[in-house]
Predict the 3D structure of the following.
Amino acid sequence: MDPDPQAGVQVGMRVVRGVDWKWGQQDGGEGGVGTVVELGRHGSPSTPDRTVVVQWDQGTRTNYRAGYQGAHDLLLYDNAQIGVRHPNIICDCCKKHGLRGMRWKCRVCFDYDLCTQCYMHNKHDLAHAFERYETAHSRPVTLSPRQGLPRIPLRGIFQGAKVVRGPDWEWGSQDGGEGKQGRVVDIRGWDVETGRSVASVTWADGTTNVYRVGHKGKVDLKCVGEAAGGFYYKEHLPRLGKPAELQRRVSADGQPFQRGDKVKCLLDIDVLRDMEEGHGGWNPRMAEFIGQTGTVHRITDRGDVRVQFNHETRWTFHPGALTKHNSFWVGDVVRVIDDLDAVKRLQAGHGEWTDDMAPALGRVGKVVKVFGDGNLRVAVGGQRWTFSPSCLVAYRPEEDTNLDVAERARENKSSLSVALDKLRAQKSDPEHPGRLVVEAALGNVARALDLLRRHPEQVDTKNQGRTALQVAAYLGQVELVRLLLQARAGVDLPDDEGHTALHYAALGNQPEAARMLLSAGCGADALDGTRSTALHLAVQRGFLEVVVSLCERGCDVNLPDGHANTPLHSAISAGAGANGIVEVLTEVPSINVAAADSQGFTLLHHASLKGHALAVRRILARARQLVDAKKEDGFTALHLAALNNHREVAQILIQEGCDVNVRNRKLQSPLHLAVQQAHVGLVPLLVDAGCSIDTEDEEGDTALHVALQRHQLLPLVADRAGGDPGPLQLLSRLQASGLPGSSELTVGAAVACFLALEGADVTYSNHRGRSPLDLATESRVLKALQGCAQRFRERQASGGGGAASGPRHVLSTPNTVTNLHVAAATGPEAAECLVCSELALLVLFSPCQHRTVCEECARRMKKCIRCQVVINKKLRPDGSEVASATPAPGPPRQLVEELQSRYRQMEERITCPICIDSHIRLVFQCGHGACAPCGAALSACPICRQPIRDRIQIFVPAPHCPSGPEPDSESTMGRGACVPAKVSGAAQGGRLGAVLGGLCLLPALLLLARLGAPAAPAWSAAQREVNVLDASGVPTAQVLSPLSPLVPRKRRYTLTPARLRWDHFNLTYRILSFPRNLLSPRETRRGLAAAFRMWSEVSPFSFREVAPEQPSDLRIGFYPANHTDCLASALHHCFDGPTGELAHAFFPPHGGIHFDDSEHWVLGPTRYSWKKGVWLTDLVHVAAHEIGHALGLMHSQHGQALMHLNATLRGWKALSQDELWGLHRLYGCLDRLFVCASWARKGFCDTRRRLMKRLCPSSCDFCYEFPFPTVATTPPPPRTKTRLVPEGRNVTFRCGQKILHKKGKVYWYKDQEPLEFSYPGYLALGEARLSIIANAVNEGTYTCVVRRHQRVLTTYSWRVRVRS
């Protein structure tokens, strides 16, 4: 029985001491809880295989046995942190749906389940026996009754515990500084996938934030005051390192659904109605879709299935009500399952089975025919077989992009040649306006010239949709082209498909006509309907001379077409026949070799995918730093070459020094992929290049595991027919080792034996606990495998060389206390430095044992650039230690951060609350203030709503006057005004003291105003004191400048609290509805495309429109006031008609952007139309603002930012540096393929500025530290109560009910801003109550003030924090 992969040891699990514990009080005593932060690895000197490193809550960090030497030091207490969940299971005690962590099922009562917390707190009858399910798919383990068993109390980071910053802290000074304590107020999940993995902590300064306690194996906190966390039964917890076994599947129907699956509901209406209760609910219209095929749109958090039947109908079903419908169509890419017994059984009556079909198992193919009985004809490996649909699975699109299996589409007969034939056959009147085009098609230059002389106005007349110049350019009639150009023919006039005359010259392979058109000034980079230039068309058709002509005349070689392919992408796709074009394009000085297509393939990736060796050489000659560049899925060029069996490309990449041990997101190395695809010729090449044989993927499988799991039936001789020398090379090496019968081995067995001969560990266990010896099912293969491993050991013992496995990826940290020691041999390695590319003896980093850089570069490093482990020691080959670079003198970073925080708080206090841009210049009698422009127009205070009677202007002296001002400088007002030269130093000093004394009166004035005392007399006295001290005779108002800081204020962009972001950069969007006022659908598309371009030009994103019926990332629509949004979402209320709210958007990954259809949208500036009597709103401007929200940006405090709350009214239409910093914080910069960020951290901004300027994009200021993404919060008012509220719950505050009879009026504020109106689905204001929906937007401090006239009767404040 296979073990459950999710039940294996994973980082993030919470553990307690186990049955074999012998390590004293390292855990803080029995009952102490810790977190698994690292897994043991084969060959590690400190954490060998079957061991784990645990970070205990009380601070100790060390390693323990989890099956090592047969001992288990730990017990698994909770695995909710790694995402273990039991869908559709409800705890019958606490009623939580979708039980997280281990499940406890009563064996006595029918269908009675408990969660871990309820089970350990003695809920239900203690005399009943239970079954334990570690995961949703593990087999149950029967347990004895709890009655009479001892319970051990838990201690650690639980609710109420006192904590300080821990070993993985990376959150700056959020805790107030090193050693500051906080209290845990809640334990919850980081996201919907995990549970109990983070802790909400309130610090001494009142701030509350979320920190990791097990999320992805990180622990941000250390417990200094333990809190009780319940109990546990030691006898009932599973041993860590002993995985649970999988349940036996009754049928394939029990498999979970995935997005994109085809499903049907085949139940009766009455049965379906009962099942829908609590699983999406029942709607009578659902009966119409019984028996219809739908597509799984998504799986809800409860495990219910959301099914889409057409572009506007979706229903939520109980998963048990659906049946998976396997359907494939012609052109679908599929994979044949590799289970031989299952295929033989399923093929009975469906095409049958023959042994010749064995090589097709596990391979990828394409459906070429669908038979009437449902069977499919599939092309696999050059042959076609008939398979049952049950033998096939859909191939993942992301894998299909990396595997070059797509067949080239055959070009249809050109529509252009058909049009020419029709033109030549026309017998029209010689005076017909389109006759000139006919003569051009016939090549009659004389008649064409005669027509031009008699009718020059017909030079651009079209016939069959084309002009005479276009036809002449296509046919290469140079003389006629010259005559038409002299007659002022339109060189850039497009046809119905967007083709200009230059496009026609490229289509017709007419270089001379192309040169003539370019000399006449035609648009060299004009785009047709598919966004292709003439250069694109010439490259796609292999017209070398035309390509040379276009490149010589300066055509842009970097322009992408509709699929984001540059001309060089197309040349690479054409294969070896376009080598000349590749040479021409790569010699253009301005070519961008880092350009990527719509699927994220750079030119090097694309050349490796297609096996274009010449392109690979040319690209690396221009940009060698791209050799290890990764796609979004982690694939490098070597991955793609290995996956698609491009041996020559792999050799080139290895010669250029690529990292042969690089791994993709699934932790697969190039060796994994070569073995997986049975590319035998690449395996010896990669092993000889130093590829680590025992590197494991995300399943814990090494290349040896993969070889034995796949290709067990594929004969090795089958690859000889293709001319690949790889099988012969591998066979010769096996035969040289004395392996008998090696020529009769299958591919899997031969590769496995070869890897064992090269030092692969045949006893290495994957995450399912299976070693290669367990996977070798045939005795012959098992003996051969053991013999090869023995030969390697003998060769090593005799000193006979042989490639040993490369260094393992060690993730130890310097503060780990080691219980176990394993000897590991290391040695010097001469290679190329990964930073400066110089050949030198590399420095050995400890503890990770990596050698990556030379001594000079190592001095500045704090972390290993390969594994990101903190460096403890840097050792030369002779054993001496390399000294680290001396840090530059300067103030401590903690002090600088604290000062910056204080400065930001001061800035917020003196900023105008209306425009959030200028500083406060006027103070009202109530104590609040505003800037001069905003304050002058107000009749009531925007904070307390009191009528404004007095406006007090605030002044401070100018901070600096570098030299004596000009004579007219006395009248200068504003920032930077200077004291005239004639003012004496004594007078300046007296004035400074007096004015500062006046400013110091400001807090007192505010206090007097709140107490009801008049503020004007006190301020007048202060002003009189200033005037008395002014001995120079200069008016005080001319000497003083408005209040301003000594340095300009840094604006702050704002991100969502959960840092919501997209996980990919190639976003698609669809337009579901169009505006009904003014704009046509075509104009709407053009405006939205312009808005998307504003973001794609400064970010890694690319945007592409798809059809409305296709799935997409973003969904755009124009809706009336009462659309469904305002009913379902607590974040967005209904639209309000013309003006007011223009649009709203959802944060990632929702992707909804909704525009108010009542507005009058235009392409142009926002303005008032006196003719129509309405406001005309710029669609591009508003759409760009909402796209920013859809990408994860909230409103910015920068006054000139596009994401400012009032950007539409202020007219700022361009993206500012503020938005760029926000995007860079979320997604990185445009140079994500380079290493600019790491270079900046290494100090290259100072030492190698020319290198940074040449290789790093100017839009990414890597030599500037990004500002923090959020502004400092205002301190909470006195008498503040903190409420932690579950997300989505309605919260009501009541205020002043007992004193309303005193005729007081209630005022509500959120974060010191007044609340005046109710917003449906957002907040509701009553006379003495306020109701809100708890969500991330509504988090903050709510204050109630009860006033009677100018007297404050009472105040209350509540601080709301959301618990998801």
In short: The mean pLDDT is 75. The first strand starts at residue 14 and ends at 17. Residues 5-236 form one domain.
